Every structure is written in structure tokens, then in C-alpha cells.
Amino acid sequence: MKTVFKALALSLFAASALGSVAVMAQDYPTQPVTIVVPFAAGGPTDTVTRLVAAAMSEDLGQQVVVQNVGGAGGTLGAGQVAAATNDGYTLLLHHIGMSTAPALYASLPYDPMTDFATIGLVTEVPMTVVARRDFEPASLEDLIAYIKENGENITYANAGIGAASQLCGLLIMDALGTKMTEVPYQGTGPAMTDLLGGQIDMMCDQTTNTTSQIQAGEIKAYAVTTPERVAVLPDLPTLAEGGLDNFNLSIWHGLYAPAGTDQAIIDRLSQSLQKALADQNLGNSFAELGTYPVPADQATPAALSEKLEGQIGLWAEVIAAAGVSAQ
């Protein structure tokens, strides 16, 4: 009889717990939500996140706060979210680095595919090849010749091992068969400051972090990294136009929660993300930065999960061929 009562008590407890989770999910959110950006403030991922957070705040009825946790190529902030309570109040907005980290770090403290719940894709951002304003080459053709001739005498800024800015540089150097001197920073925000000050020769960064400086003439721009020119920077040729055939690099961003987050909360966040990306004001802000929101069918858990899995395999091959490692 005691066994029967114990089993009944456990069943009632489990049902009560499930009911509490359901109520919590239904009422979510009841407090501010934090989105962790695993890079320094002022960089391109930070810019994208702040625009998305503002739009999602309106829909969720709670403030969505952005927290910058930079370091270790984005793995520090990502690891913090992977270890966070899975109640929907700590999220991660990360870029392509989520898919490159497994190939770069031998002892990564999380598994991108199993330690996170995907919410949806956000945007794919073109990159630009830029330099200090007084850099010698006058055109893309001149730049390519200059890199081939001067190689390691050129300083190339990036946001560290595995960052999009480093990956772009690696692909360019591989295509040209030469090496430049890499100068790592905590993020491309600080790198841009030194580029503006003339302390660094070159960098490759997303349009979200370079468009305004290019348009103001504060830095020199040579090319975009996508197969087509970018509408907001129509005079910039593609790298393919300069002879780097099939060069195609855009930086996708996705929104994640810790694994085990209740599916009802994930669905609510995905719906909020879709609504935010459909907002005309956000679309206009993205357009000014040379990017665009993904369509609604891409701002879903399934679409981001599929993208992440495919990109992990793709970049594992590229990084192995380049012989790059963070350890």
C-alpha cells in the first residue's frame, strides 16, 4: 500500500511540475530578457543584436537587454549561455563563429548542436575589405598586387581566432598565396578604432560595422565579399570582379537559448523574432547597414539548426586546409 501511495504521490508531483512549467511558458516573459553578444560592444554582431533586441522588446512586453561578453573568439560568451538556467531569460546571438568553433578549439566547453536550443536565423551580412584612409593602393586591382608584393609587411586586423574577420582574411590570403601580419583584437569595434587612427593597414569586416565610415570617407574600401554588389555601396566591386573567382562570404547570425528550454518558450521567442524582422523600421535600419532580415521561414528553430549543422561541416574542411587552430 505504501508503494502505491508513493507512486501516486510521485505522479501527482510530476503532473504538478509539468503544469507549473506550462503556466510559466504561457506567462513568459515576466521579467527582462538578456541577449548575450559574445563580442565587444560596437562591433557588427553587437549592432545587429541591439536593433533586434529593441524590436523584440516591443512584442514581448519586457525589456530585452544586450550584454557583451567578449573573449576567446566568441566562445566565452557562448559558454556562459550554454551553462545558464534554461528558463528563456538568457539568450545568445552569435554569428558564423558558432559553426567554426568546433574545428578551432580542441577542448570547446560546449557542443553547438547539443548544448543550445535554436530559435531562428536573423540576417546574413556581407563583408567589406577596407583599409586606413591613406593606404597606398588606389583600386582593388592595385590592392591585390600590393598584397602579393608586400605580404607580411601589411598589418591585418581581426577579432581573433575563428572570428569572421579572421576567416575572411584567411580566405583572401589563401586565394592570393601570401600571408599578411595578423593583429588580433577583442572585437572589430576596437580594431575599427585603430584603423580609423591609422595604426593598422587593413581589415575585413561586416557592412554593419563599415558602411557609415566608408560613406563618410573615413576609411578606404576596396571590395565586398559576396557574389553580387551591395545596394548601399554600389560602387564597391566584388572580390570576384578583381579576379578572386568564386569568392563568397556572408556572415549569418542566429538566436539561441540554452538546451532544455521549454518548447513553448522557444516558440514564443521565434514568433517574436519573426515579428521583429518583419518590422519596417528594423528593415530600414538593416538596409542602411548593407544587410537585410531573413524571411519568416528562416527565423525558425528548424532553419537555424539545419544551417548550423551544414556550416559546421563546411568550415571544418576550410579550417583544416588552412591549418588554423586556437590551441
From TrEMBL:
Gene3D superfamilies: Bordetella uptake gene, domain 1, Periplasmic binding protein-like II
Keyword Phosphoprotein: no
UniProt signal peptide: 1-25
Keywords: Receptor, Signal
Record family assignment: Belongs to the UPF0065 (bug) family.
Official protein name in the record: Tripartite-type tricarboxylate transporter, receptor component TctC
